[in-house]
Structures
1.
Amino acid sequence: MTALSMTMLSPTPVYRDESAAGSKLAPRPSTLEGKVLGLLPNWRPSAVHILEALGALVGERFRLKNIVMEQRVLQVPITEGKLIDSVREKLDDLARRVDVVITASGD
């Protein structure tokens, strides 16, 4: 039997070609108990399924106040510039409504 392996990557708060000088990650809560969990799928077809499964697992482990699943983006909302600029208002709105966010990309 062949062993499976998985590589976990940590996303950075900036594009690789930009400097992170002076920028900080958002503070992390010490627990998820009583928190509102946001689930943010991208435009890839299976992202919602991945997040539904993760949300259920987190909900089993912690007494969450609520789970908020954002609507999936149906296509990449950008023709030029950076993707973050085209979805900044949506992300800011989500950040006001939830305590933590899990995002996923899936095919």
Note: The chain has a mean pLDDT of 80.
2.
Amino acid sequence: MRAFHFGLESVLSLRKMKEEEALRRFISVKNLHQKKREALDRIFETRRLAQEEMGAKEEGSVDVKTLLQYQRYLAGLVVQIAAARAELVRLEKELAARREILTSATKDRKVMEKAKEKRFAEWREEFRRAEQKETDEVGTQIYLRDGDGEREP
């Protein structure tokens, strides 16, 4: 009997490649999301430090020009925070979409792998039956050759 061959092996390979590509894209977006999250955290820390510094200067003698510079700087940080938050929201939506694509690709691959496993089990059973048939035929030939199963001691 010939060796096992899965007729849809090329389809399975294609689905594996699609899953790998979906995983790469998901990881890429996830890494970008993490970097943007870290950048937002740094902006928050910068704002906190600037507010502390401005508060310390307000306790002493401060000129109006310096105070206005701090306020403009803080206003710029607020704009950066809003932009970073909007980017994070966009990336979270893209991440959810990429996760859905990856989940679908994984399911598609698993369906093909199950079909391959099922076909292999069928082939293995056919192979076992063929071997058994061959063994039975050899036994029958020996029986017939030896004359109705009678043997001399």
Note: The chain has two helices and no strands.
3.
Amino acid sequence: DWEQRQEEDTLLIERMLLLVRNVLHVPADPTEEQGVDGDASLHDRVLWALHLSGLDDLLKFLASCPAEQQWALHVLEIISLMFRDQSPEELAALGQGQAAAEHREDTRELAALRQRELAERRGRALQRPSR
């Protein structure tokens, strides 16, 4: 129960957040990461492991829950370090590209559904007996 969290639990959570922050803070070693261009960097692999463990969802919870405001700066640092190798321009363009692609796909699906609905209406109208 979070309301009855003991001091020991609070310290454990803080230490875990600091550990994640420190792991993400380790700088990239260019000599270690000289692989094929498509290979994921060590930082990317750590991020993937954090995602698989569900830590990203926990961070979202801690960031959005008013009762957990004491962790806000730790969460902010971790999120900042998660995006440290990304340029804001690339992230914004990626989001816009995905949104535009999703919009085109949704429009295509909507048009196909509309055509199907019109065909069904025509079929029903032809099946009605005339008086």
Note: The radius of gyration is 25 Å.
4.
Amino acid sequence: MSKRPPFVRVAGVEEIPEGVVKHVIVHDKPMALCRVEGNFFAVNAVCPHMGGPLANGRLEGCVIQCPWHGWTFDVRTGLADHPGGHAVSAYEVRVEGNDVLVGWLKRPLS
């Protein structure tokens, strides 16, 4: 069984206002970190369609939209918000005190 990578501090709670997306790097992976209704979520920051920067995308509720071609993903799960779409990886996020930490994959992609 492989060892899970450690959680990494990526921001302070106050650095991620509600509805804002921040680009962070965790274990050499670009991620889009956001806060929705007080909860923090992290997904792969690269759109699987053509490599668009999801961290620069628009966030509406729990859905992030790629700024290049409009593909949408649920930040809670990484699943595409349209039928037949590709998912992005979603990562575990936790808050310890005033620190936002990102860790391992929530689920393997098929």
Note: The domain at 21-93 is CATH 2.102.10.10 (Rieske Iron-sulfur Protein).
